Amino acid sequence: VVFSAIFGYLIAVDTVVWLDLIWLCVGGFLVTGSSNGFNQIIEKDLDKMMERTKMRPLVTGRMQQTEALLVAGISGIAGILILWTQLNELSGVLGFFALFLYVAVYTPLKRITPWAVFVGAFPGAIPPMLGWIASSGEFGLEPGLLFAIQFMWQFPHFWAIAWKADADYAKAGFRLLPSKGGKDFTSAFLILVYSLFLLLVSILPVVFQLAGNLALILFILAGIIMIYPSIQLFTKRTDKAATKVMFASFIYVPIVLVAWYIDKI
To answer: How many CB atoms lie within 10 A of CB 18?
Structure first.
């Protein structure tokens, strides 16, 4: 989250104001930590049921709920105030929106509908846009494209994780794969489709002449890195193939953001 916010800022500016960048990192880190903290408070009893979460602090009793509420609350308020007062009002609004949407909408929806992933993609895509807006205080095409790329990336990224953790998620009643059939043809097909859309969205900065040929080459390379394992998942529909998509998604965003930044300088 902080990495993508930093590069959103670097892509936006001609001259780095280091104090602003530090405030962006601190504010973004605190808001993200608060979101994660409230998520763990809300899902404490559900986390007990899953292997991947059963050792979290609230589950094991290493932290009490009152302490967690205090830490998450102070972190969220402090992060939003830092973004608002040290950067600009729009940055503070975006920080609040990301925190609210993640905690109050995405988290409870996870047990109700796979559309939770769509809702969660909004706060997940805010960081690079926040980085841009932190420098200018204004919205525009370029921060919109930064948002669009990270928004589209969320789907193959999270669905690959959900594929891997499907059985574990089911213990807590989470429905996060796009198909009612779970790890089936439809889910694999949608992961591939969104990986293809991701490539198309990623080249829009070049279409709008906001990035050049070097960025285009690296954007396409990053797209191939996502699409190839997605094809394997579509044809094989195995956990191993989903793992490859997941790891491809981990390096996709850094490649695209660094490419856009390098092309600019």
So the answer is: 8
